[in-house]
Amino acid sequence: MTTFRLFALTGLSLTLAAGCGGGGVRLTPSFVAVHNTMAAMGLTQSVEIEEGSIGEGEARFLRRSLTAGQCYTLVAFGGGGVRDIDLVVKDDRGEPVASDNTTDDQAAVQFCPEVDGEYEIGVSMEEGGGDFVLTGWSGMPSGGGSLASGGGRGSCASPIPLPLGTTVAGDTTRGTNSMSGSCIRGGDAPELVYAVTLERRAQLSVTITSNYDGALYLLGACGEERSEIACNDDAPTTERSHVEATLDPGTYYVVVDGYASGAGQFSLTAEVAELESLAQVCSGATPLQAGQAVTGSTTGRPSYFTATCAGGARSPDRVYTFDVATRSRMRLRMQSTYDGAIYMRSDCQNPNSEIACNDDHRDTRHSMLVTTLDPGRYYIYADGFSDGSAGDYSLRADVAPLTGGAAAADNCGAPGQATAGQDIDIDTFPASDDFAGSCGGQGAPDTVYQITVQNRVRLRARLAEGEFEGALYLQRTCGDASTEVVCASGGPGQTELDANLQPGTYFLVVDGTSPDMFGAARIEVQLDDLQALERACQQAPRIRPGRTLTGDTSGSIDRFQATCAAGARSNDLVYRLVLTRRQRVQITSEQQFDGAIYVRRTCTDMSTEVACNDDTGDNRHSAVDTVLDRGTYFVFIDGFANRSQGAFTLDVQLTNP
Fold this sequence. Notes:
With 657 residues, the protein is mainly beta. The chain has three helices and 45 strands. A five-stranded mixed β-sheet has the order 11-13-18-15-16, with no helix packed on it. Strands 20-22-27-24-25 form a five-stranded mixed β-sheet, with no helix packed on it. It has a five-stranded mixed β-sheet with strand order 29-31-36-33-34, with no helix packed on it. A hairpin with an 8-residue loop joins strand 24 (340-345) and strand 25.
């Protein structure tokens, strides 16, 4: 009697009895031995028995119907003269999905198909030749099973065809872990890969519902994470994920994955909506009227267009037309409930005709474009950052003559009035260019405001919430650059002017730093009585080094500012420090608020500041450590930015330098 040993992928060991003295395999006792062993392990025979004879180097392929969700254990063994028999399973594309290539006279594979269909089971004689028997059982041996790695069904080597408009079921526990999406970096969950082919440009929408924390991503090239088009983990719960994208014709790969190590069963649905041609979209663009805001939504829309900013602006979009009759200034503003973007082209379908693009203006919910346009038709796009940014928006376009002349407080003939403590909302967008300061303003639109000063004062003016890089300057005679008192410039919302003034009339000009810098802003004007400030400085309590001072700024007002602590425009208190010789000065404070300390040589002159500190360790502590010459100095307790005030302690220590 000849004995055959069969080793399956799971460690399964079978002993089959063949007849004595013959080269062939006696089917009945052999089958009984295999069947009894498989049955004992809980498997059911589900692949009909095939037997035959082939020579060395030959193969026989059999077609069998296999069912998704089942795991099959296929076994083949040879008779006398067979030294090496191999077994392979191929899908409907002829791609191997499971195989046993060991050198032995028997072979076994385990295969769990993801889709129903006809599969080819191949038996080949690598060495020797003669009789063989092939059969198969379904179920999972108690020792556990495994899929063929790398090239199994549901991998990049053999992605599962994904039907459109039909829900399919799957289980990622049968997959492999070979890649990850950008929304689930760092996990080790197994994944399954599906392939979908689009014949024409379309919007693809894919959704999974799962019994675990699933994830979904879309690739342009399977296995290449840098080709990722979209990725989603939760939409809106951990048991649902959704991606959608506008795609050109071609083959794309849908990967069903899991967060962290999550794996399990899922249902997958892919749908496509054919798109209009770009010519159709452009011809149907909505006209946008100057000065009239429109509202809309990009939710559920395809992505037809892209841009040079906003990460390519591959999100859902809408397009508008805008007609310009004469060469004009143009300002476009968008406010959105999502991370929006706006851009403009002269040719609707040609991305190379882009004129301007903006993603964020001040924050991700606002976008703004300012430019100059020649007569003609332009195309304006409401879009979103990168992929999948969509929601509601409002859009408004304004135009003004190239030379301006249509703004309030436009020139010296009709200046606006500036009053201390009363903010002024201004807009230089429709203004003419009448002024220029030493720090900027040549060629930029500007407006002017009259300020009347009754006493010696300190003027503080700030250009807040500006849409442009601004310049502020003060003239004694309106329009006469030679009478300029002070000029300051800075980025949007960062322009501040500070000057001590004698009684009289002055003119505050709001300008741009360059010809294309104009727009809306708010002017904050404050006048501080210098005599009152000087009295506060004269009455400042003297610091006794080595003694702890306590105080509270809540009952004070904002009189002084600093170079640190975002300007230190909160309530403040001032103290005098008298040094009889050159010494090292260490000043520390502990506050119940976000405080700051700074030191000046001259109490009312910010330019004499010698040290300033906001946070030391945390925002409740501040410290200054410096060496000062003999003289009188002023130490200020203040707060970060606006409205930071409260109780504090102050310590000053003097040592030799």
